[in-house]
Write a structure and sequence with these properties.
By secondary structure, this protein is α/β, with parallel strands linked by helices. The protein has a domain at about 5-170 and about 210-245 and about 280-295: Rossmann fold, CATH 3.40.50.720. It is about 40% helix and about 15% strand. The strands form 4 sheets. Strands 2-1-3-4-5-10 form a 6-stranded parallel beta sheet, sandwiched between helices. A 3-stranded mixed beta sheet has the order 11-8-13. Helix 1 links the parallel strand 1 (about 5-10) and strand 2 (about 30-35). Helix 8 (about 250-260) packs across helix 10. The chain is globular and about 60 Å long.
Length: about 325
């Protein structure tokens, strides 16, 4: 992928997409295509096909998706499976139809079975039942992986997939109804600090363990994969993570400290915990020469700075 290549980042305004855009700009890529959601509904096949016909991108980062935490997945399960399947189907098929040289599809660590051995290896896909709280989203992401593999096998395309762990960073979603755990914690602790609330209530028991990857680290990994990882006919996907996880209780204490909230934490055990543990095996990626460079405390501080700046700018 040379610096003059025409690149399309689907979902360029989201957490991952905006990080990819920053990385491409920093690396000097000159022709990056973008389209506002008001102009292009990726769920609409005709609009997607017309866009690819007009713009003719050579490389595609498929980072567009409907995402959210446990509450959002449970509340909007139909939208999570429908929207994500339509987005993937339309972009992947249009990439094949219009001769895209290489496509990188973004999946999720939730594709792996709930009770799979830890850490999660790529070969554990489809070896057991999924976590029920995000099953619709996971099924859509699995379908996208298999769609890429099927096009590679039948048409000789070079469509690969990356399975990132839990992501966070600038541009994250801090809406308490739809946010993932880390940005939700940032907002809860911040509001409690501002309002002098004596305690913050968090979902679950705090015992599950999660792995977190800063969005700019992911963008760096994705560009690395675009240059160094190609479809091989089988297993055309790779895990992207840090190889380290943390208990949710310990994460809460870390966020509390960074935000500067001095009250108590209350755990609502009547709310679901989700999967007990999700740690990715990242040996395949790390052995190929990539590793993350932003540690969790530094990343949380950066994300909190973004959040407070966002509030001031409103």
């Amino acid at each position: 992928m040379n610096k003059d290549a025409k690149i399309y980042v689907a979902g360029h305004t989201g957490l991952v997409g905006s990080a990819i855009m920053r990385k491409l700009e920093a690396e000097g890529y000159k022709f990056v295509v973008r389209a506002r959601s008001a102009e292009l509904d990726l769920r609409n096949q005709q609009q997607v096909d017309a866009f690819f016909e007009r713009e003719k991108p050579e490389y595609v980062f498929l980072a567009a998706a409907k995402v959210g935490g446990i509450m959002a997945n449970s509340t909007y399960s139909a939208e999570f499976i429908y929207d994500n399947m339509m987005i993937a189907t339309n972009v992947i098929h249009a990439s094949y139809k219009h001769g895209v040289k290489k496509l990188l599809n973004l999946g999720s660590s939730c594709i792996y079975p709930k009770n799979a051995p830890q850490p999660l290896k790529e070969e554990y896909l489809l070896t057991g039942p999924l976590e029920s709280t995000n099953e619709p989203y996971a099924i859509a992401k699995i379908a996208a992986i298999k769609l890429c593999e099927s096009y590679n096998r039948q048409y000789g395309t070079n469509f690969i997939s990356a399975m990132p762990t839990n992501l966070y960073g600038p541009g994250d979603n801090f809406d308490l109804e739809t946010a993932h755990v880390l940005p939700a914690m940032i907002r809860k602790f911040h509001e409690a600090k501002i309002n002098n609330n004596p305690k913050v209530t968090l979902w679950g028991t705090g015992t599950p363990r999660r792995e977190f990857l800063y969005s700019d680290d992911l963008a760096d990994a994705l560009l690395f994969l675009m240059h160094n990882f190609n479809a091989s006919g089988e297993g055309d996907y790779v895990n992207v993570g840090t190889g380290e996880d943390i208990a949710i209780k310990d994460l809460a204490a870390l966020v509390q400290k960074i935000v500067g909230y001095n009250g108590e934490i209350e755990w609502d055990a009547s709310k679901p915990d989700g999967t007990p543990r999700k740690l990715l095996d990242v040996n395949r990626l790390y052995q190929s020469g990539w590793s993350c460079f932003i540690r969790l405390p530094e990343g949380i501080q950066s994300t909190y700075n973004f959040f407070t700046t966002m509030l001031r700018d409103k």
